[in-house]
Amino acid sequence: MQAIMLLLILLALAGCSKDINTVARVELERFMGDWYVIAILPNPIEKNAVNGIESYTLNKDGSIDVIYKFRKGKPDGKEKIMRPRGKVFNKVTNAEWRIQLFKPFWSKYLIVYLDEEYRYTAIGIPSRKFVWIMSRTPEMPAEEYAKILKKLAEDGYNTQKIVKMPQKW
After folding, report:
1. CA distance 6 to 22
2. pTM value?
3. Domain for residue 87, yes or no?
4. Do residues 81 and 69 lie in contact, with contact meaning Cβ atoms separated by under 8 Å?
5. What's the number of domains the chain is made of?
């Protein structure tokens, strides 16, 4: 019986995905502001999205105001605006947040990549079903994009499914 239990435990552990490592530390004040969405894992909400910009504002109480805007289909398409609530969950690293898009549910947001100059970032979730690659400008150098894709692949994201979001201003 113990052998069967051990086998079941080992099989369960083999099916578990490895943890995603966040960046070591995020200076929240530097991270705040506008981020252009360069690429995403496709999802129903952002289907055919263009000109995505995610904006973060740190409030005095430590909460984070998030505004995510994009256009549907084309640069002059219908504008979609989402205003989820955010909060820092891991206050040691500031790299793990909780975002509330729909009440009462909070989702884990993990800052998995951030360059030293705070120009480029990638944010994902533990299930690896969503990821956003973002830049402070509407463009990202190819070598930086490749570096981020490599990191995401190492973390178990299916980078073959990541698509670029047009930034046509």
Report:
1. 31
2. 0.88
3. yes
4. yes
5. 1
> Which residues are registered as beta bridge partners of 68?
54, 82
* Segments forming the whole domain that contains residue 44: 32-164
The amino acid present at 17, given as its one-letter code, is: S
| CA gap 17, 38 in Å, rounded | 26
Classify 64 as helix, strand or coil: strand
Say which amino acid occupies 145.
Y
Give the CA distances from residue 37 to residues 6, 24, 44, 132, 157, in Å, rounded to whole numbers and listed in that order.
45, 22, 16, 7, 17
Residues 82-124 pLDDT 10s: 999 999 999 999 999 999 988 899 999 999 999 999 999 999 9
Quick: pLDDT tens for 112-161: 999 999 999 999 999 999 999 999 999 999 999 999 999 999 999 999 99
- Nearest CA among 39, 66, 55 for reference residue 167: 39
Whether residue 16 lies inside any domain: the answer is: no
Place of tokens 């398409």: 77
Residues 36 and 129: their CA atoms lie apart, in Å, by 20
